[in-house]
Specification:
Shape: globular
Number of helices: 3
Number of strands: 0
Largest sheet: none
Radius of gyration: 14 Å
Length: 73
């Protein structure tokens, strides 16, 4: 599966779970963030993980909630 296909599948899954009017979108986001950090922690060295976490913390003001949509990195 390509990155773009995986991204689209994840978008569909999260849209179904988080936009159903039943599940709390903030709870969904928290679970996704926790899972992402778990994956990063298991795949990166401690130094790499700490640099990533620090980068996330230091760039929260740069998060664009009104952007053009998903970006493929």
């Amino acid at each position: 599966m390509t990155f773009e296909q995986l991204n689209r599948e994840f978008e569909k899954l999260t849209a179904d779970l988080c936009a159903d009017g039943v599940n709390d979108p903030l709870a969904c986001a928290g679970i996704m963030m926790a899972q992402a950090l778990t994956i990063y922690k298991s795949m990166l060295t401690e130094e790499e993980f700490n640099r990533l976490a620090e980068h996330i913390l230091n760039t929260t003001d740069a998060i664009n909630v009104e952007g053009p949509g998903p970006v493929i990195h």
